Amino acid sequence: MASVPTAESWTDGAAGVGTQAENLSAGLGVTEWLALQAGNFSSALGLPMTSQAPSQARGNLTNQFVQPSWRIALWSLAYGLVVAVAVFGNLIVIWIILAHKRMRTVTNYFLVNLAFSDASMAAFNTLVNFIYALHSEWYFGANYCRFQNFFPITAVFASIYSMTAIAVDRYMAIIDPLKPRLSATATKIVIGSIWILAFLLAFPQCLYSKIKVMPGRTLCYVQWPEGPKQHFTYHIIVIILVYCFPLLIMGVTYTIVGITLWGGEIPGDTCDKYHEQLKAKRKVVKMMIVVVVTFAICWLPYHIYFILTAIYQQLNRWKYIQQIYLASFWLAMSSTMYNPIIYCCLNKRFRAGFKRAFRWCPFIQVSTYDELELKTTRFHPTRQSSLYTVSRMESVTVLFDPNDGDPAKSSRKKRAVPKDPSANNGCSRRDSKSASTTSSFISSPYTSVDEYS
C-alpha cells in the first residue's frame, strides 16, 4: 500500500504536474479499505480521478516523506514482530484445537476460523502493505495487486463474524440451554457462509484493481467505474458491516449474558456441578469479551483516521501524517497477534496446549495436570443429561446374605430404599425446586461440560 502522504507529496517544478499526481493518487489504493490512503479519501470528497498516467516525466519528482533509516528499521521490527507472533501463535491455536479431541467444540471451531483468517492476513498482507507504504512502489505484480485489494476485507469479515457467531452461540447456550446446540455440520455451514459473504463483499476490490507502470514507479490501485462517490460509499458500507454492526450484536448479546452469569447465583442451591459450570461459563465469556474489546480498540483509530482524512483532506499533507498512518495501521494489524496470547492467559486448556507446543524450551515444563487437560475424560459422556432426567432414575442397592451360599436362596435379596438422586449429583435436596431451576440454567441434554472449559 502506498504511504498515506507520499501519494500526494510528489512535486514537480512545472505548474500543474503536482496536481496531476494528486489526481492520479486519488485512484491509488492497495487494499483501499485496509490501506485507506489519503489520496483515496481525497477522491471520495470530489477530487477528479483519472486512470491515465501523467504525460510528463516523473524523473525529477521528490518524495517529501522519506524517512531516516533508523525509523524505517524500528517500523520494520514492529511490523515483523506482529507477523511472527500472529502467524505462529494462530497456527498453534489451530493445532491445539484440531489435534486434541477434547478441544473440538462449537466455540473452538469458530476460534479455528478466527485464527486462520488472522494468520492469513498477517502472512499475506501486512508486510506487503508496509513495504508499499514505505516505498510507494508496487513490486508484486498485477495478480497480487488484485489479491492484496481483495483478501484483507475478506479476512477481517471472517474474523469479526466468527466472533459474532461465538457470541450468539454463547447467548443461546446460556439464555436458552434446553435448545439443541449447533452440530458439527451446522457449524461448518455457518463458517462456509461467513466466507462466502466475505468474498461477495470484497469482490469489487478484486474486480476493479489496476496496476499502472509509470517512469520510475509502479502503482496498484482500485479504479471505481463511477468515481469517488462510489468509492467512498463502498468503504462506509464496509466499515458498517465489518465493525459497527457486528460489535453492536456482540455488545447486546454479551451484556445479556453477563447480566445472567454475574447477576447472582440461585438462592439456596449447593449443587457442585452448578458452581463448576457457572465458573466455566464465566471464564469462556470473559475470554471472548476480552477478544472482542481488543479487536474494537485496535481497529478504532484506523477507522477514525479514514473518516478524518476523508473530511479534512488537508491533513494528508501534514508533516507527521505518515507516522500517524503507520501507527494506526500497525495497531489494526496487531489485532491478529493478541488472540493466542489471550487464550493462553485466560484458558487453562489452551495454556496446556501452548506448553505442549513449546515443551522443547528448557524453561517450559508440562505437568501431568496439563496433559490431562487436553485428554478426553474417560467416563465423561458426550451428551450430558439434565438434572431433571437424572432425578427420574432410581439408584438400587442389592444386599446379599453372606451366609447364603445357595443360589436358590437368592429370593432373600432385599431391595434398598432408592437414594436421593440429587445427592448423586453433588446437590442438596433441601430445595428441590431450586435444584430443578439450577438444572435448566447450567445444563441441557445437548450440552457437553467441555463446552464451558
TrEMBL record:
UniProt biased composition (Low complexity): 434-453
A Pfam family reported for this protein in Swiss-Prot or TrEMBL: 7tm_1
Sections of the chain in a coiled coil: none
Keyword set includes Magnesium: no
Recorded topology in the membrane: Multi-pass membrane protein
CDD domains hit by this protein: 7tmA_NKR_NK3R
SUPFAM superfamilies: Family A G protein-coupled receptor-like
InterPro entries given in the database record: GPCR_Rhodpsn (IPR000276), GPCR_Rhodpsn_7TM (IPR017452), Neurokn_rcpt (IPR001681), NK3_rcpt (IPR001013)
G-protein coupled receptors family 1 profile domain ranges (all copies): 89-343
First-listed, main subcellular location of the protein, grouped into a coarse class: membrane
Keyword Cell membrane: yes
Compartment(s): Cell membrane
Region of interest called Disordered, as start-end residue ranges on this chain: 401-453
Transmembrane annotation, as ranges: 72-98, 110-135, 147-168, 189-211, 231-263, 284-312, 324-346
SMART domains: 7TM_GPCR_Srsx
Alphabetical keyword list: Cell membrane, Disulfide bond, G-protein coupled receptor, Glycoprotein, Lipoprotein, Membrane, Palmitate, Receptor, Transducer, Transmembrane, Transmembrane helix
The family this protein is said to belong to: Belongs to the G-protein coupled receptor 1 family.
Protein's name according to its UniProt entry: Neuromedin-K receptor
